[in-house]
Design brief:
The protein has 21 helices and no strands. The protein is mainly alpha-helical and 436 residues long. The protein has one domain. It is globular.
Length: 436
C-alpha cells in the first residue's frame, strides 16, 4: 500500500524505468551543477557582512524546503522508522532482529515503508543506543504515520545542520559557518535525506567547541553522545585524550566528571536495550563483510575465508597505526580536527561493506572548520565527488545497467577521488594551521 503523505515517493518509483530514471538523473546533475555554481558564488560574497545575513536566510529557507521534500536517494530514513516501530513493540528486540524477521508477517506500517522505499530487508541496527531511543521516541510520537515520522527525522537532520553552522561561528568564524550551511552535500544528505550522521556530527562539533572554550565536562559528554549516536567518532577518543594531555587537562576534575557522566549516560541508554553480545550484532555484520574496495575480489575472497580474515586484520592494524600517528600529532585543536578528518576518511575508504555519499559528510564538516584557504578545496572536492554518485543506485534499480556494473561504477567514483585527497591530507597533517 502506498498510503498518504509524500506523494513524490510514488512519483519517483513510477520513474524507475530506464527512460524515466535517465531523465530524472539528467535533471539531478543539471540542478547539482547549478547548486554548486551558486555555492561557489555565494562563498565569494560571504566576506561582506551584509551578504552574510542574506546567506543565512537563504540557507535556512533552503533547509526548510528540502525538509519538506521526500527522501529519494536513500532508504535509510525508512530503516530508522522501521527500527523505531520494532523497538517500540519490544525494547529488547531493538538490536535482536532485522526489519523483517524471517517468519514474521510485516505490519501495515512496515508494508507502507516497503511500498515507499522498496526496502526489502535490513539487518539488526548498527547504530548507538541514543539513536535507537530517538527512533523509538519518534515512532511513539508520530503514531502509525510514516509521513509524519519521516518528516520529524528530516526535521532533526535540518536542525542538526543549523546547529553545526551556528557552532562554527565561535569555533572557526562566520565564513566557515556559511560554507557549512550552504554546502550542497550537507543540505541534500541532512535536510533532504535525513541521515543520522547529522546528529552524530552535531555532537562532535559541540564537543570541539567545548574543548576550545575549555568547558571540558560538556565537551567530553558531547563527544560521548556522538559515539552513542553512531559509533564511528570513537576513532577520535585517543587523539582527543592526547590533546587534553597537551593542555595538562587530561587528569582534571572537569574531564573526570565528563567521563563519569558519559559512562552513566551510556549505562542508562543501554540498560533497557541490552541483550548481551548480540547488542552489537549489526556492527559485527558490517565489520565482517568484505570491504567495498575489495568487491572486485569478492568471489575469490569468499572462497578463501582465511585470506579474507587476514586482509580485514591487516586493515584493522593499518587503521590502528593511523590512529596512533594522528594521536601523536594532536597537540592543538586544529591538528585534532584535521586528524579527525583523516581518521574518518581512512575508515570510509577501507572498512565499510558499502560506500555511500553521506559517509563523506564527517570529513567535509571537519575540513570546513579549518581555515578555508588551506582546506576548503579538499572539502569541495569531497562534496562534489560524493554528490556525483547519488543517482547511481536509482539507475541500477531502473535496469539501466547490471548490478555488478553499478557497484563497480559506484565504488570507483566515490573512493577513487577520495584516495588521492587522503594522500594530500596526510601530507598536510604534518603542519596544520591554527584556528582563528
Amino acid at each position: 500500500m502506498r498510503g498518504t503523505g509524500f506523494a513524490w515517493d510514488a512519483l519517483w518509483k513510477d520513474l524507475l524505468s530506464p527512460a524515466g530514471t535517465s531523465f530524472a538523473v539528467a535533471a539531478y546533475y543539471l540542478s547539482l551543477a547549478g547548486l554548486y555554481g551558486i555555492y561557489l558564488s555565494f562563498l565569494k560574497d560571504s566576506a561582506l557582512p551584509r551578504a552574510r545575513r542574506r546567506l543565512w536566510l537563504l540557507g535556512a529557507i533552503t533547509c526548510l524546503a528540502l525538509t519538506l521534500t521526500p527522501a529519494s536517494r536513500s532508504t535509510d530514513i525508512y530503516a530508522y522508522l522501521a527500527h523505531g516501530h520494532n523497538g517500540a513493540a519490544n525494547l529488547r528486540e531493538t538490536y535482536a532482529r532485522g526489519i523483517y524477521p524471517e517468519g514474521t508477517p510485516p505490519s501495515p506500517y512496515l508494508e507502507e515503508i516497503s511500498a515507499r522505499s522498496g526496502l526489502v530487508n535490513h539487518g539488526p541496527s548498527p547504530y548507538g543506543p541514543l539513536w535507537a531511543h530517538l527512533e523509538i521516541l519518534n515512532y511513539r510520537a508520530t503514531g502509525a504515520s510514516v509521513f509524519a515520522g519521516a518528516l520529524a527525522l528530516k526535521g532533526l537532520g535540518t536542525l542538526s545542520l543549523l546547529g553545526i553552522a551556528l557552532l562554527a561561528v565561535p569555533l572557526s568564524g562566520p565564513l566557515a559557518a556559511l560554507s557549512l550551511l550552504l554546502n550542497p552535500l550537507l543540505l541534500t544528505e541532512f535536510a533532504a535525506e535525513g541521515h543520522n550522521d547529522a546528529l552524530m556530527i552535531l555532537f562532535l562539533v559541540l564537543g570541539l567547541y567545548g574543548l576550545k572554550r575549555t568547558r571540558l565536562t560538556g565537551a567530553v559528554l558531547a563527544l560521548a553522545a556522538g559515539v552513542l549516536t553512531k559509533y564511528i567518532p570513537a576513532l577520535l577518543a585517543l587523539p582527543a585524550a592526547r590533546y587534553l594531555l597537551s593542555r595538562k587537562s587530561l587528569a582534571s576534575r572537569a574531564v573526570g566528571l565528563g567521563v563519569a557522566a558519559s559512562a552513566a549516560l551510556a549505562a542508562l541508554l543501554y540498560f533497557p536495550l541490552w541483550i548481551g553480545g548480540a547488542t552489537f550484532q549489526g556492527v559485527r555484520d558490517n565489520s565482517e563483510a568484505i570491504p567495498a574496495f575489495l568487491r572486485p575480489l569478492q568471489a575469490a575472497l569468499s572462497a578463501a575465508p582465511l585470506v579474507a580474515t587476514g586482509l580485514r586484520t591487516l586493515l584493522a592494524l593499518l587503521l590502528l597505526g593511523l590512529t596512533a600517528w594522528v594521536t601523536l600529532r594532536a597537540k592543538s585543536l586544529a591538528s585534532l580536527i584535521l586528524g579527525g578528518a583523516v581518521l574518518l576518511l581512512g575508515y570510509f575508504l577501507f572498512f565499510p561493506a558499502f560506500v555511500w555519499p553521506w559517509y563523506l559528510a564527517g570529513p567535509v564538516v571537519l575540513l570546513l572548520l579549518l581555515p578555508p584557504a588551506s582546506y576548503q578545496k579538499y572539502a569541495l572536492l569531497f562534496a562534489v565527488n560524493a554528490s556525483l554518485v547519488g543517482p547511481v543506485w536509482a539507475l541500477y534499480k531502473a535496469g539501466s545497467f547490471t548490478a555488478s556494473f553499478g557497484r563497480g561504477l559506484h565504488h570507483a567514483l566515490l573512493p577513487g577521488c577520495a584516495i588521492l585527497i587522503f594522500a594530500a591530507l596526510l601530507q598536510k597533517a604534518f603542519s596544520p594551521p591554527e584556528l582563528p
